[in-house]
Design a protein that fits this description.
2 copies of one chain form a homodimer. Chain A is mainly alpha-helical. Chain A contains 20 helices and 3 strands. In chain A, strands 1-3-2 form a 3-stranded mixed β-sheet. In chain A, a hairpin with a 2-residue loop joins strand 2 (235-239) and strand 3 (242-247). In chain A, helix 1 packs across helix 3 (60-70) and helix 16 packs across helix 20 (481-492). The A-B interface holds A 15, 18-19, 21-22, 25-26, 29, 33-38, 40-42, 44-45, 48-49, 52, 221-226, 228, 238-242, 279 and B 15, 18-19, 21-22, 25-26, 29, 33-38, 40-42, 44-45, 48-49, 52, 221-226, 228, 238-242, 279.
């Protein structure tokens, strides 16, 4: 029963996804609503789920079902692709002992909390012992997985399958002079723009109303998702029709939550566009973080910071926030695309954003290599920051404590943000070559653009490699020139 | 290693509680925030967790650990009591096939949704097929469990261990004439009270502020709990320090959410007072629903609707809601204790509340016996309602579709509300016999009362039977006269 064998394997893998998605629910709740004292028990609940999911994904039954499916010789390409990815993942997962997975899950719940406290008091020493533990786990995992050139390869593979550290490194080395130059010119130009033009009083309920209207208008389905409030915006998938976005509110600046929502809704549109019936299988999940981030950055920056978008939305925005009624569209565009050197990555403008990534990639690579001790991170961070931005963070909260990633064990993650930026520009430029898409975009109608993304990116799921997705959609591998051209046009021009 | 054997059993049982509490998180999310389209997958996640928890609680490992612990001959009474309850539960659980548990879990997720839709359109036929399924499951479980007199015994035991249907039935038969008389006099008196005295505009945020202040003032710990909004208020435990209350808001009447919060906070105080280190064991859980409801009703009615409480809280309430500034305390007390016949149980005043329970107990008992077909429920409900209240519900939404319980498979549950009323009055009267508690209550200081409840009810957990809790705390079994005296004093006087 060859087909039956593969179907059984799929059922088993879908069962694992019931557990991993349940863990996502617990994690979402931890970030959004969980009361403080619930932490310790929550960590144990999550650890149990991780352990059980890993045990199911690597146990004898999985092994048996994989072997049966492999000897079945599947005919259709989708099943074959799924089986190949599942086999590769099984081999990778089976190298990690279950105890390590459960330990990591429990550690990260506590580390996240410690990181929040450390950041609040800007005291790196509160977080350092947790980071030490998580770095050790990451390095142990890298050794168990194995790698081609250096341990960082193995970690990077978790987020960007098939991409090597040295490829990223040489790409970033090439980008660095150009990005530095663009940033410097953009910041220079930014000095001429009137600051604080959009400062005002923006009640949360009204921000929420505008954000929801805009998210719905670009296609986010609120019957299969929602927006909540967290200190650190994210998008997470709790089930095939349950995509949760989060944002945070600045009462003086509505653009902070709005661009946050556009960004996360970009992720959400990708998740909502994946083949629902394949949920739990490689073909039903996102391809990589570099592809995921291409979707969020495309909607946030290429759509959301464009003139056509605000030609349509500024009048409505001024209805909701009357203080904007007298504002000129040119001034508004200048204000939302104002570039300046700043300390916080998630608040950085497009022109300076990638410099933050170059820094993190460098720091992480040294950490994972063992060339940078935990205690020396703040100093190394500040030194590199000074080199790239010409200024030094005033404290650790504005320096090496600002990002949540390490506290979640997410080492090897950051590079995907810049890969996402490159992919976003390339996909957007390719889509715009279709006249109907371009004319629709010019009148702020994004249905054809979303249709193109659904067809060329979303519907292919995660069985292909990221490079294959880009190749199919744009006839080229990831290529930096679209992003650089976009930045020059917008910021140097 | 006798002690070791029992410790191993406890570890195993605590592992089961990781799963059941995780299912509670998923259920809480379903009620509070889950988007509509997520339902089907959520049902599968919950079904998996139920099935796994049941498998762990009834599998070979559990059997082996129980046997080992039983032959270890424990010395301390707490361990012995825990072992006895675990043995009894194991025997009960092992009679139910895993498939039935998983089916029931998945059915109820869908049935809850169907019930909401049916209630919205007041169309019993939308819910009837779901209820048919759940009634069949309940009856199958009753047959598998076995019972002394009638199948309803087995269902009642789920919520009120050791209590028989005929005991409840004879108690209710005795109560009925007295309750009917009290209700009739209370309603008559209510006609003299000015209606709609408290109607006004009460913004949700301000209601939330008052509710939180009051819940905190009676001892609810917001670092180990929170309040959210749902269509149907409830209290659920997601972990030993994670107690979630919900309420709903009437923009014209702040007392609806406030008494809802006092009620649910009463449940929450009980949960927060259970021995944390025993979470997952019988000694770390609530004893029964009749005891649980005694706590909620005590805080809602004996505390929250008392004159001393409002002597303290009316000034603060009028600060938050200025329309109440001129109101007289006597008029306010009359307004919040106004009695009238009404259709909806959860909105019923104290004097008429138990009549709603008598009705449900009668209907359910007939359903479970097989004497009442699903299709005939609306008619039977209305006939009995007319007999007790002298009026007929205008539609099913205000009749047999009003309660969530059946949609969750909760047949056998309702009687515990009236048992809770009786226990509440008895516990409150007993506590008040202590001079220091009584004088504190008279100045709206409830710390000594809570201390007494912690010591005499909460700290004993769920290993004793409900009757044993009442006996220990009040030196008597549950006795209706306290409740009847309380109602007469408040409503007939």
């Amino acid at each position: 029963m060859p087909v039956h064998a593969f179907a059984q394997l799929c059922d088993h893998v879908r069962e694992v996804s019931l557990l991993t998605s349940t863990e996502s629910i617990l994690s979402w709740d931890q970030e959004t609503y969980m009361p403080a004292k619930a932490l310790a028990f929550r960590a144990r609940q999550m650890s149990w789920l991780s352990g059980k999911a890993h045990a199911l994904a690597t146990g004898r039954m999985m092994q048996k079902l994989l072997h049966q499916a492999q000897s079945a010789r599947l005919q259709d390409p989708k099943s074959t692709a799924n089986l190949n990815v599942l086999t590769e993942e099984y081999e990778r997962n089976a190298k990690i002992p279950n105890r390590l997975i459960m330990e990591e899950s429990e550690f990260t719940a506590h580390a996240k909390h410690a990181w929040m406290e450390a950041r609040k008091s800007s005291d790196f020493s509160l977080f350092a012992p947790h980071l030490e533990k998580l770095l050790n786990i990451a390095r142990r995992k890298a050794e168990l997985w194995g790698y081609a050139d250096e341990p960082y390869d193995a970690l990077l593979h978790t987020y960007e399958r098939g991409t090597r550290t040295r490829e990223v490194s040489s790409l970033f080395a090439k980008l660095k002079p150009e990005l530095t130059q663009i940033a410097s010119k953009a910041v220079e130009r930014g000095k001429a723009i009137k600051p604080n033009l959009l400062r005002g009083n923006y009640p949360i309920a009204k921000q929420q109303q505008l954000n929801a209207e805009i998210a719905a208008s670009i296609g986010f389905d609120f019957e299969g998702g929602r927006i909540d409030t967290t200190a650190h915006p994210f998008c997470t998938t709790l089930g095939p029709r349950d995509i949760r976005l989060t944002t945070r509110y600045d009462l003086k600046d509505f653009t902070s939550s709005l661009f946050g929502v556009l960004h996360e809704a970009g992720h959400g549109l990708y998740e909502q566009g994946l083949p629902e019936q394949d949920f739990g299988l490689p073909s039903g999940r996102a391809c990589s973080l570099g592809i995921h981030e291409s979707q969020s950055r495309l909607w946030e920056n290429h759509v959301g910071r464009s003139r056509a978008f605000w030609e349509k939305w500024l009048p409505r925005t001024a209805e909701i926030f009357p203080n904007l009624r007298k504002i000129d569209l040119d001034d508004f565009m200048a204000a939302i695309n104002l570039s300046e050197y700043s300390f916080i990555r998630v608040e950085a403008d497009e022109a300076t954003y990638d410099l933050h990534i170059l820094l993190r990639f460098e720091i992480e690579r040294r950490m994972v290599r063992g060339d940078l001790a935990i205690k020396d991170i703040p100093e190394a961070w500040n030194a590199l920051f000074a080199e790239l931005f010409g200024m030094v963070p005033p404290d650790a909260a504005k320096g090496c404590l600002q990002d949540i990633h390490w506290s979640m064990g997410g080492l090897g993650y950051f590079a995907t943000y810049t890969l996402g930026n490159l992919n976003a520009a390339q996909l957007f430029a390719t889509a715009r070559k279709h006249r109907n898409i371009a004319t629709a975009i010019d009148r702020a109608d994004y249905a054809p653009l979303l249709g193109w993304l659904r067809e060329n990116v979303h519907s292919h799921g995660g069985a292909p490699l990221p490079g294959e997705i880009m190749q199919r959609a744009t006839s080229k591998a990831t290529d930096a020139r679209h992003h650089l051209r976009h930045l020059r046009e917008r910021f140097v021009g």
